[in-house]
Fold:
Amino acid sequence: MTKVMAKYGWGIDIHDAFIISPEADNDVRTWYAQAITDIYDNRATILSNYFASIGIGASAQGNWERVKAMVTPLTEPFKCQPMALK
Structure:
């Protein structure tokens, strides 16, 4: 929303949506897709910091490893596409 305000002067963020000027749509899609890609790329650090912040320590590492083992990893690099966002 900081980028929207700086470039377009107004916008309203509502949970996971934005009310923006129609002229801002391409920029917002691009910025949002990049943010999602950045979250994916930094997910290990983000999750580690989150776990630490809520008191989940090393004792739960085995449980976390079991959960991760049930997830099918991507076979190619992840890059969120702007047009995937509505």
